[in-house]
Amino acid sequence: MNSRFQIPDSRWRQTQVSFRFRVSGFRRGLLESGIWNLERAALLAATVLTLAAASDRSELSFPRDHGAHLDAPVEWWYYTGHLKDPAGHEYGFQLTFFRVGEMHLAHFAWSDAARRSFRYEEKAHLALPGIASAAVGRLAVANEDWSAEESSGTHHLHAAGRGWDLSLALKALKPPVIHGADGLLRKGPGANEYSRYVSITRLAATGTMRNGTVTDSLSGTAWFDHEWGPGVLPAEAQGWAWFALQLDDGSDLMLYRMRARGGGATAFSSGTFVPAAGMPRTIAWQDIALAETAFWKSPRSGARYPARWTLAVASLGLDVTVEPLFPDQELVTEQSTGVIYWEGACRVRGTRGGRPVAGRAYAELTGYARRDVPGFPK
User: Potential cystine with 81: which of 155, 164, 222, 262 (Cβ 3.0-4.6 Å)?
Assistant: First the structure.
């Protein structure tokens, strides 16, 4: 490990407790931690800018590019999914691994629809063998006993915490989708306001969840995102709303609205439609009508989040309502990214081409509590 990122062993426990990587206050967070001094902060900032300048437009190849891209200052691997147990009870899960330079962070969230309960846990570590790592050339990321690894087309996930243990095998049902023109998804007009963004929009999921002494078998579908780049949030953006829809006709839809400070969509919002069979296609935001029709106020952060949407995509003949399984699916990640955001499982109902359609979705909402978004320095 590069010596400028090392922390003495005697301060390792302090790092786990007091390190507050506030993404919206990048330099301030480094200084307020009491661990990083001004010279180290300046050096890390210079490193981020240098790496960001080396924009990667190379052709992507899989499974190689499911692995880490160490020239990118910010990178994350994102799994969400919809599961059922043998009794038909519905669950949603999120397992995310972040790499910000030499720092590795992770979030896990579990939504129980029947109980309307939501729990999450988080981790933060420097890159150290056996503690936190991300392999180059293949998908193998880990943070303590949380891990994601791909082998022969199957993604093996594991996460465990206070009284629970989740193990899943995800089998890809569709090939990877590369979002954005020329393999780059623009977030804004600036030179470093972009990312490489790859999804596997549908995977078959099987596995088990242990709660206390009870272990249930699970099955369902999952969605995998992998994104990397300079990690610069455009000045005109407050945050974003991201949607991953899996419809029961076999089609999938990703929508990405960069939310302007005034509340509307910036010019760099877009989407990708993935049919049940055939080639994906980009959806221009001018083709999309997204309206917020209900709201929920968090008792923890005080943030007011949208809690139901109507969504229409003219070119697809799609007209649906997206609604959370229940409103309270907020993460306050003060011990890792320092970001407050909403990420939750949703139901989808409506029509496509005049015929009934239903499905499941995950939505992510950032910038509602403050101008914080995972992985993006201010």
Answer: 222
